[in-house]
Amino acid sequence: MGFREKYARLGERYDALEKPLERFFCPLRKRAAEFVKGKVLEVGVGVGKMLPYYPPDIELHAVDAVPEMVRIAERRAEELGLNANFYVMDAEKLEFPSGSFDTVLSSFVFCTVPNPERAMAEIHRVLKPGGRAIFLEHTKSDCRLLNWLFLKPLDLLLGVLLDDNTLRETHVLARKYFEIEHEESHYRGIVRLIVARKPGEQSKAFKDRGA
């Protein structure tokens, strides 16, 4: 059983599963949303945990590979009065033209996607030159002891439950594709917020506007 089937079976119970972590994650989601502008794509929207934090002046598009999760996110957007477009779509194969978005955001997604390199390349492709990529992700800790005592057992458990891999180095992968503007390490690197740019002609214009 792959991650799609596992997340589909969880459905709305995913909220309950993650609830003990919300006091740690919610401030970071709010922080990540501060960096979005313009036409925005959220990759891996899940049940819509990022939705309450987006500014009202963006054009939001959101994708997830699990139809059951997309339906929950759509309902949450309606409850919030948020105008957004939702699609069932794989992160590794985004069905948008190249250079479609000003911002692409992923929140706790790269621990789950089967092929993170391909997903990163797709995010790079659909961003406009000078566009911003934002990653709020589980990553391998800076502390080797913490990796062995906490993340490795958690990785085994979540691997069985959700096909998650909490020991991935998404922060390293992002550097292969983007210019890193800002990086925050939280809880000894167990979670990182990475703000990056796609190199291109618009990069200077974005910086000049203070975007």
Automatic annotation (TrEMBL):
GO terms for molecular function: S-adenosylmethionine-dependent methyltransferase activity. Keywords: Methyltransferase, S-adenosyl-L-methionine, Transferase, Ubiquinone. Residues 41-135 form the Methyltransferase type domain. The keyword Metal-binding does not apply. It comes from the Archaea. Gene3D superfamilies: Vaccinia Virus protein VP39. The keyword Nucleotide-binding does not apply. SUPFAM superfamilies: S-adenosyl-L-methionine-dependent methyltransferases (SSF53335). GO terms for biological process: methylation. This is Ubiquinone biosynthesis protein. It comes from Thermococcus barossii.
